[in-house]
Amino acid sequence: MRNGVIIALAAALVTAGAAAAPAQAAATPSVTAREAYLVDTTDGTVQFAKRETRRVPVASLTKVMTAYVVRRQARLDDVVTITKADIRHATAGGAATAGLRAGERLTVRDLLYGLMLPSGADAAHALAERYGPGTAKFVAKMNAAARRLGLRDTRYANPDGLPSKAYSTARDQATLAVAALRDPVIATVSRTPRRAIGKSALHRAHVWHNTNDLLDDGAVGLKTGFTNQAGYCLSFAAVRDGRTYVGVVLGERSEKARLATARKLLDWAGTGASEEAEPGVTIP
Question: 86-128 pLDDT, tens per residue?
């Protein structure tokens, strides 16, 4: 199944925009999220769209791009030293953390888990400082990657999604999700429910739990997010009846509603929801 997911996602890059046969449409679901988007990556067609091009904050979905940029620069066995600045950045912003402490030394592989599962802003800051080098240069690399991927309505201001003037769209985040899930490491990390690393001479023991409850329903990724400004957000991928769907929910009113909306969209798509094919996401 896992290999099939990656193959389906890769195939979508070639076939995105292809026409799909019309199907008997089920009633369009009522979606309370401010913005939402769902694409069938198997044939590249849009299944659902609501304000999908509206520029809005996306909270910790930002960390998907952070992981994407890190994977293009770092080796998984690189060792990164956590600094007091990394810890201060996360705690001062009231962000979710991976529970890191200054002086710990962790591999990039471990920090990717700390970044994606508990949504650690401390891990995000440490990675950005190392691979910018410096946060400002790292953010420039994030924006350069966004341009290469064709994310025309996306601008990053930090590596963690804390409140800023940054913005993106549901459509752009779906495009990013497809690109990120092509990376086998990001795909593996984002679908992992729990990651434990033992104590060593370099770091304490850590246990990280994935905040994406949709994994319990068979999802294979990707990332949750929340700030007061952005609301509850979710970027997700799942397989239903042999078809791979990538979706984004932005500006939802609660964690429960975020999960319910994603489930509703996936269930609806599985009934043959689309009346006509529309162009889906494409990756350069």
Answer: 999 999 989 999 999 999 999 999 999 999 999 999 999 999 9
CB 52 within 8 A of CB 169: yes
CB 176 within 8 A of CB 225: no
Closest to 250 (Cα-Cα) out of 188, 174, 136: 174
Contact 116, 67 (CB under 8 A): yes
Q: Residues with catalytic annotation?
A: 60, 63, 119
- Give the integer Cα–Cα distance in Å for 174 and 191: 16
For residues 160 and 115, what is the distance between their CA atoms, to the nearest angstrom?
A: 9
Contact at 8 Å (CB) between 19 and 236? no
Q: Where are the alpha helices (DSSP H) in the chain?
A: 2-15, 62-71, 84-92, 108-116, 121-131, 135-148, 170-181, 184-190, 255-269
Looking at residue 141, its amino acid is K
